[in-house]
Input
Amino acid sequence: MGLMGVKIREWKGAWWVFINHQGTRKAKRIGTGEPGRKAAKQVAQQIQARLALGQAAFDRPQTSVTLDAYAQTFLERIEQTRKHTTHDDYRKIFDRYVLPVFRGQDLQQITREKVKAFAVGCLQRGLSAKTVQNIIRTISSLFSHAVEDNLVTVNPALRPGKFLPKISKRRSINPLTGQELALFLAYTKTMAPTLYPAFLCAARTGLRQGELLALQWEDINFAGRFVEVRRNFTHGKMTTPKSGESRRVDLSRELTATLETLQLDRQFQAAARGWKEGPPWVFCNEKGQPLNQNRIRLKFFRLLKGAGVRQVRFHDLRHSFASLLLQNGESPVYVKDQMGHSSIQVTVDLYGHLIPGGNKQAVDRLDTPVGLPNSATPAQPVGAAMGPVSSDQLEYSVVPRRASGVDDGFRTRDLRIHNPAL
Output
């Protein structure tokens, strides 16, 4: 239903007013149910009257709130709903990139054109497309809160993909090969035996560094050979894993035996030092405290150099775990569960190019051997008539390409053409 350029419509359970006036389109959510419908109808009549008088469709909310002032409110508001690392990243983005450009500007003065120009300026300064995307998304999150607070009517930074360069979903990874990993672990076992269990656990479970350092003995089930990843230690604080949920990761036999020996040694150490009980941390220093992130990372680089293995990040041990599993033929679904990815798409985007795809005999078996009918069905397989035959021993007919179109049954017919009823 509508009045010339003003319409009301129910969408996603709520009544909205849609305006299409002189090439400008706007929408406003009114309410739900019958009260929402009546209110929407009344608002539509008021807007129609305003348009007839040449006035704006909606009264713009009057505000003198600047972006830098509202940014502080925004950061305080999300402090309890975001991880402290995310909150710190937001603050750094505002301080480093956003406020130097938009400081002192009223929220209503920041248009989509200004946001686009800001994004282009960031790219011209040499910032990566991914960094600029994170900056614009942070601005968008702020304006989403401002819309809810009725300080602005639209979010000028919404859907940054419309004006930013396309970013490849496949991020750069640099995993170690199986041989490189074996050299590194063998050297570590000899030269740094106290750290060997930690590095072996990282290589055999794919735990993130923070998850590794937050691991406690109560998280390990030796009988079932698995570990429950419940915590993450980052920036000096204990928090949840990246996904926000715990996960179960399988333990190899070698790793299980190594951790059992470590636990026994830890009990002897606690008794020798007069501790009432051993530290809860699986990997800790001489004082029973979690290992320092920077020190273990520095030690990792030195051990790589000593083993004659190329330099990679500590996080690449995680990538090595996933890549070796996939190269060994494991299911991407299994790898996704072990890694704790939020979706299988993340796993495929990261490691899809590592999934083995060279089994050409699998596609060879789809071809039709010469001398056999083309009408073989799953109920009458070709192999049933001939017995087991290697695909390398068969000859295959090649269907010549026609000048235009293909009508030899190798193309799915358009049902809309061959069945007028569809």
DSSP finds 16 helices and nine strands in the chain.
